[in-house]
C-alpha cells in the first residue's frame, strides 16, 4: 500500500506532466517537464524504499484526476497554484518530522519549494517577458474561484441549516419552517452579494488608481523603472548581468513591464481586476443559495419531524461533500475532512434546535 507521501509525489509528477502538455510557451513547458522528471525521481526513490514495484507507480489519485478536470474548466494555470501549495506542504511536513525526532533544521528542508523557481531562473533561453508571464500566472492561481464556491456553499448550508433547525425545534417542524428557511436563504444571499459587491468595487477603484500612478511613472521615467526591474530580478536570485539584460528586454513592452511592477511593488494582480463587481455579487448570491436551499427542500414536500429528519440527512450529506471538496486544497484524508465538517454542522444545528425547543415550550406554557 502506498504511503501518503508517495501518493503526493505521484500526483505532483502527474500534474506537472499535465501542465507541460497544455503549456503553449515551449520554454515554460520545458520547465514543467523537468519538474515532472524530478518528482518522478522522488516517487521512484520512495517506492523503492517502500518496496513497491515501479511498474505500478504512476497511478494518480482521484484528487489529482479531479484537479485535472477542474483545470480543463478553469484553465490549467489553476494547477500551478495547487502544485506550489503542495510543494510548501511537503516542506512543512519534512520540517515537522525533523522537529519530532529532535533533528537539526538545516534550511535545506525548503529546497523543494525553490526547485521550480531555480529551474526557471537557470533556463538560459528564458526572457523577461516569460518570467513576467510566469509570475503573473503564479500570482493569479491557487484555486480562489473554487475556494469561493466551496466556502460560499458552506456558509449558506451551515447558516440556513442552523436557522431551519432552530425554528423546527420551536414549532415541531410545521409549515412556518419553510417560510423561515426561504426568508433566511434570501436574506443571507442578498447580504453576501451586497458585501461582495462593495468589497470588489472599492478594491478595484483603489487598485486602479495605484496602477495608473505606476503607469505614469513608467512613462515619465522608464530608466528609473528599469532599474527597479533589475533589482526585482536580482532579489529573485538572478545574476546582475542577466537581470540587466532581462530588464532591458522587458522594458520594451510597456504592458508587461507595468504588470511586473504592479505585482512586485504593489502586490496587485491586474488579471483579478478584470471581473465586474456585479458578476462577483451574482456569483456570491448563487453559491450561498445553493448551500442554503439544501436544508429547506424537505419542507417543500412534507412537514413535522419527518421533514426535520430528511433535512438533517440532506444537510449531513451536503456537509460531507463540502468537507471532501476542501481536501482538494488541503490534501487531507477525505473521510476525516468530510466527517469533521458533518460533526461541526450537526453540532451547530443541534444547539439551535435545542434553543428553539426551549423557546417553543416556554411560549406554549
Mass-distribution shape: flat
The structural domain count equals 2
Evaluate the radius of gyration: 25 Å
SS class: mainly alpha
Helix content: over 70%
Strand content: under 5%
Order of helices and strands: HHHHHHHHHHHHHHH
| Cα end-to-end separation | 61 Å
Largest sheet: none
Number of DSSP strands? 0
Sequence-ordered SSE layout with sheet pairings:
Elements: H1 4-22, H2 26-49, H3 62-74, H4 77-100, H5 111-122, H6 128-140, H7 144-171, H8 176-220, H9 222-235, H10 240-250, H11 254-266, H12 277-293, H13 297-301, H14 304-330, H15 334-364
Helix pairs in contact: 1-2, 1-3, 1-4, 2-5, 4-6, 6-11, 7-8, 7-12, 7-14, 7-15, 8-9, 8-11, 8-12, 9-10, 9-11, 14-15
What report would you give on this structure?
The protein folds into 2 domains: 4-119, no CATH class; 144-364, no CATH class. It has 15 helices and no strands. The protein has helices spanning 4-22, 26-49, 62-74, 77-100, 111-122, 128-140, 144-171, 176-220, 222-235, 240-250, 254-266, 277-293, 297-301, 304-330, 334-364. The chain is flat and about 75 Å long. Mean pLDDT is 76; it is low at 107-113 and 139-143.
Amino acid at each position: 500500500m502506498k504511503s501518503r507521501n508517495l501518493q503526493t509525489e505521484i500526483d505532483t509528477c502527474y500534474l506537472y506532466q499535465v501542465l507541460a502538455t497544455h503549456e503553449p510557451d515551449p520554454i515554460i513547458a520545458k520547465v514543467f517537464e523537468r519538474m515532472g522528471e524530478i518528482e518522478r525521481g522522488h516517487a521512484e526513490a520512495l517506492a523503492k524504499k517502500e518496496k513497491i514495484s515501479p511498474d505500478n507507480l504512476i497511478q494518480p489519485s482521484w484528487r489529482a484526476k479531479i484537479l485535472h478536470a477542474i483545470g480543463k474548466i478553469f484553465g490549467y494555470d489553476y494547477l500551478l497554484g495547487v502544485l506550489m501549495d503542495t510543494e510548501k506542504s511537503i516542506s512543512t511536513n519534512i520540517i515537522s518530522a525533523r522537529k519530532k525526532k529532535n533533528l537539526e533544521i538545516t534550511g535545506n528542508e525548503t529546497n523543494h519549494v525553490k526547485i521550480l523557481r531555480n529551474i526557471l531562473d537557470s533556463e538560459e533561453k528564458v526572457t523577461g517577458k516569460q518570467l513576467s508571464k510566469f509570475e503573473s500566472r503564479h500570482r493569479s492561481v491557487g484555486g480562489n474561484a473554487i475556494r469561493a464556491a466551496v466556502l460560499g456553499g458552506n456558509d449558506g448550508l451551515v447558516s440556513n441549516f442552523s436557522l431551519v433547525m432552530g425554528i423546527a425545534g420551536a414549532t415541531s417542524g410545521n409549515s412556518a419552517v419553510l417560510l423561515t428557511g426561504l426568508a433566511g436563504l434570501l436574506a443571507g444571499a442578498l447580504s453576501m452579494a451586497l458585501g461582495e459587491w462593495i468589497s470588489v468595487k472599492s478594491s478595484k477603484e483603489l487598485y486602479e488608481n495605484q496602477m495608473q500612478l505606476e503607469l505614469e511613472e513608467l512613462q515619465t521615467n522608464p530608466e528609473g523603472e528599469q532599474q527597479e526591474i533589475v533589482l526585482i530580478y536580482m532579489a529573485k536570485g538572478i545574476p546582475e548581468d542577466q537581470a540587466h539584460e532581462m530588464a532591458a528586454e522587458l522594458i520594451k513592452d510597456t504592458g508587461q513591464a507595468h504588470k511586473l511592477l504592479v505585482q512586485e511593488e504593489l502586490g496587485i494582480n491586474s488579471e483579478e481586476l478584470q471581473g465586474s463587481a456585479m458578476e462577483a455579487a451574482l456569483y456570491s448570491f448563487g453559491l450561498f443559495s445553493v448551500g442554503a436551499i439544501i436544508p429547506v427542500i424537505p419542507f417543500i414536500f412534507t412537514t413535522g419531524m419527518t421533514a426535520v429528519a430528511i433535512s438533517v440527512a440532506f444537510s449531513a450529506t451536503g456537509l460531507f461533500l463540502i468537507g471532501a471538496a476542501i481536501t482538494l486544497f488541503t490534501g487531507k484524508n477525505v473521510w476525516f475532512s468530510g466527517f469533521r465538517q458533518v460533526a461541526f454542522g450537526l453540532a451547530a444545528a443541534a444547539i439551535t434546535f435545542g434553543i428553539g425547543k426551549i423557546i417553543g415550550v416556554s411560549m406554549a406554557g
